[in-house]
Fold this sequence. Notes:
This protein is an alpha/beta fold and 256 residues long. The chain folds into two domains: 5-89 and 201-254, Rossmann fold (3-Layer(aba) Sandwich); 93-198, Rossmann fold (3-Layer(aba) Sandwich). The chain is built from ten helices and ten strands. The strands form three sheets. Strands 1, 8, 9 and 10 form a four-stranded mixed β-sheet that branches. Strands 5-4-6-7 form a four-stranded parallel β-sheet. Strands 2-3 form a two-stranded parallel sheet. α1 packs across α9 (200-210) and α7 packs across α8.
Amino acid sequence: MDSGIGLLPATAAVRRLRPDADLVVSLDPDGMPWGPRTHEDLTARAVAVAEAAAAHHPDALIVGCNTATVHALPALRARLEPDVPVIGTVPAIKPAAAGGGPVAIWATTATTGSAYQQVLIKEFADGVEVTEVPCPGLAAAVEQADEAAIDRAVLAAAQLTPPDVRAVVLGCTHYELVAERIRAAVRGSRPEPLDLYGSADAVACQALRRVGLSARPDAAPTGSLTVLLSGREGALPEAALAYAEGRLLAAVRTAS
């Protein structure tokens, strides 16, 4: 679940690990974007989207959104667990910092400098040089698959990123959809390698662990896809097909 197509990376990761899994993706086009909403309003929207998904009796629910995880995870767990395990999305600061600094964290303007992110940095990157990089407009540009706006937002954030960073944490799930464009913009002509750290693969693995399933990437691709748009069954947004993750999911048979 997410307000928009930021859920694609984690959903595609589940699909790659379990091609036989039936997937339900629950978006909120009527209420997006969630970022500018108040805590109470965002939580209410997230709970409604989660309940729409829960009506399909899933084994687990992935909150494929950093913002929704920050604001709504306790309410979602109170509403759905223990019947449906709820897996949140946390920026991959810990693995990025494990190799030492300098590290940059790309995130939305609201998240950059927030108490939430400061706690994560203190807990997982204490002693490591960390630069928080705000990325105004990038998530919205990715959501619309607006190529020119994506390029502008990526370039602006790259210019705020110190030239000696070893790793970049993608602190918004939307950013994983344009990861290689971010890598190219930050790396430029530097000969040093640059590592990007997203959350999708770890979140997918955690979801499987929570329901006692092992990865079976060679399983027959028999899984189905159900798309919920503010609770109504529909199709993936057209913008999703601009990304490899969206095209992977579009190839999954639609549940009948």
